[in-house]
Structure formats: C-alpha cells, structure tokens
Amino acid sequence: DADVTQTPRNRITKTGKRIMLECSQTKGHDRMYWYRQDPGLGLQLIYYSFDVKDINKGEISDGYSVSRQAQAKFSLSLESAIPNQTALYFCATSGEPGRNEQFFGPGTRLTVL
Amino acid sequence: KQEVTQIPAALSVPEGENLVLNCSFTDSAIYNLQWFRQDPGKGLTSLLLIQSSQREQTSGRLNASLDKSSGRSTLYIAASQPGDSATYLCAVRPGGNQGAQKLVFGQGTRLTINP
Asked: Which residues of A touch B44 (CB under 8 A)?
C-alpha cells in the first residue's frame, strides 16, 4: 500500500465551485505539504504544516485553504475554483529527524472549466 | 531568492550508456538537495538525498554529487535502461529561516533511453 495517498486522482469542475482535495499518510510523519505543478513552471509550495496546530502559507497560497484534521490527514480546499487553478496537485510528507526527505503522493489532476 | 536550473531540458540516449544530469542553484546556503524521478501522470519518487555536509550519495546505478561552493549537483546514471526513461527533478531546501520546510524545484530533465 502507498505511504501517501491522495483523493480524488482526477477531478473536473466548473468555475466558482468549491473543491476539496484530500491527503492521507501512513508514514507517521509530522510535516505535510501541498504543492501544485504547472507545465514549464515546476512545483510551487501552497501550504505546509508542521503538526495539527501549525499551518503555514507557502509561496502561492492565495485562493487556497487547508485543514490538518489529524497527524495523518491534510486537506486542500479551493473555495471558489478558477481556470488558472487547473494543475497537478501533490501532497508530500517529511519527518525523519535530521533528514527532512520529502515523500510525495501520486497527485490529483484538477481541471477547472 | 534561490533558483534552481536543470540543463538540458530533454535528453535522449541509447540504452547502455552512462549519463549525467545537471542541476545548478544560485545560493550555496542550502540544507539539503534531493533528486526525484517523475513518470508521466504520476507522483514524484525520491531517488537520493544529499545533506549539505555530504559530497555524494549512491543508490544502485545512481550516484549524486554535491558541490555547494559552486552551486552544482550531478546525477550520474550508469548503464542506462529503457525503464530509466522519466523526468528527473532536482530540488534544494534553502538554509536558514528562508528555508523553513520549502523545497525549490528545478524544471526537470526529461530523459529518454532508446532500446
């Protein structure tokens, strides 16, 4: 079984709709992250969380919100989706002391029409 | 601001060749550097992590080196196979407060190994 899972894997929605992407991990890591990947732009950090009470904005947090429901779960919400939020979204975790190696989920492909 | 560059953007080589992928970064103050592999439509698989105090890491046919002072890392793939075809991403974690937990990614090198 995968250590980091994301649901849904694909989603098509319309402008203005609220969308939630979910991430779960079984690695026991404290730190979780949300990234988006756009062709030609690489990956950019949206939000990250050190634990359930510590959530921080990344470089492109506008238009997004997150919720850390438990150590193992970190959700990303688009309150009112817009077409330029069409992208591949990745959840990642890290937590091995001294290493901070990040492990990624399989991604969610989101299309906003 | 830390920037990461990977050249070339794409590389095609015959099976069996040894090859080197390049990664450069603008600020030598890094915490670590990580190489990933990404297959089409899939997530990122961590290949190697090099801490700032290390010069290289090896895993099987892969060897990654780090030269912080010159802002460079290379990923060496020995005896390439068609299954190595993927996009390879380099990412650095900036040091100091700027780093927090953020990874700064290059745009990747798309590698094709021809049978």
From this structure: 90, 92, 104
